[in-house]
Amino acid sequence: MTVSHAFTRYVAIGDSLSEGIGDPGPAGVHRGWADRFAEILAQTQPGLTYGNLAVRGKTSTQIAADQLGPALALRPDLVTVTTGMNDVVRPRYDPEAVAANIEETFARLTASGARVATMTFPDLGKISPVARRVRPRILDLNARLRDLASRYEVALLDLFPLPFTADPRMWSDDRLHASPTGHTRIAAGMAHTFALPGHATWSHPLPPTTRAPTLKALGADLRWTVDHVGPWAWRRLRGHTPGDGFTAKRPVPGPVRPQHAG
User: Fold this and answer.
1) Taking the CA of residue 196 as centre, how many other CA atoms within 13 Å lie in the half-sphere pointing to its CB?
2) pLDDT attached to residue 228
3) How far apart (Å, rounded) are the C-alpha atoms in residues 133 and 51?
4) Counting Cβ atoms within 10 Å, is residue 175 exposed (0-12), middle (13-18) or buried (19+)?
5) DSSP secondary structure letter of residue 258
6) pLDDT of residue 198
7) Is 79 left (phi over 0), alpha (psi -120 to 50) or beta?
8) 3-state secondary structure at position 137
9) How far is CA 90 from CA 38, 65, 237, 238, 253, in A?
10) What is the pLDDT of residue 130?
11) What pLDDT, on a 0 to 100 scale, did the predictor assign at position 227?
């Protein structure tokens, strides 16, 4: 566990997880775990400013090329990084290249003097049938994240081994992005990683719920395939990626204004 200390500027970089997809906020801007974590930090560090350069669909190459430099230019003393999952789901996965991108990101951020944090990815194969095919890649990516985090003294939130991350309530309808509940839990987990008080139960199981009948579950799988897998595959075939046309939601760090809904 990392002992918390005062931070003055927090910047998040990465992909849809850090942008907050699956956690709708006001005015059509997604909230997400990084926003929620910034709000937790600001409770004890009211002078904190927060920027978020993450954009959905970005690969480790794009994050290193397009977000790392701007993040360093903002001179943060805390940076969180989520990267690699969009590489994993592509037809061609080059683990060595992904690891090199992540290492460059960690090396340059830590060399700047910033405290850096990252996380492993949950076992999405327990939620999404399609993700089961890339489970070996997720295992490989997580192993590399753990190794690089240890090597560069990056704080690590290890989500993969935690059973509650397979709870469907942690995930949005597309089964690839965290739900508001999931983003809230991840934010609490990062707060616990930094020894912030009040988050010791972040990894406890969600309250019990009635399991859906088999036929209903099969129907939900079918609807998910039609509503999400088909359109996703069609976009990929046309060469479109989720981040096309999107830019960072908080390119300039500013004061953190807590949101009390959700």
Assistant:
1) 21
2) 43
3) 35
4) buried
5) -
6) 94
7) beta
8) helix
9) 31, 18, 12, 14, 32
10) 67
11) 46
Cross-strand partners of 178? 171
CA distance 79 to 96: 23
- Token pair for residue 58? 């970005």
The structure tokens listed for 108 are: 């340059």
Residue 178 three-state SS: strand
Tokens of 210: 């009635």
| pLDDT for res 123 | 87
Short-list 155, 66, 142, 58, CA closest to 106: 155
User: Identity (one letter) of the amino acid at 219?
Assistant: G
- Cross-sheet strand order for the sheet of 155-157: 155-157, 115-119, 78-82, 9-14, 49-52, 250-255
Print the SS3 string covering 69-118: HHHHHCCCCEEEEECCHHHHCCCCCCHHHHHHHHHHHHHHHHHCCCEEEE
CA distance readout (Å), 75 to 10, 21, 81, 208, 248? 9, 26, 15, 44, 17
DSSP designation for 232: H
In angstroms, how far apart are the furthest CA atoms of the chain?
Answer: 54
> What are the 10-residue block averages of pLDDT along the chain, 262 residues in total?
72 97 88 97 93 97 98 98 93 95 98 98 78 88 98 97 92 84 97 95 87 50 45 51 79 86 49
- Specify the 3-state DSSP secondary structure of 59: coil
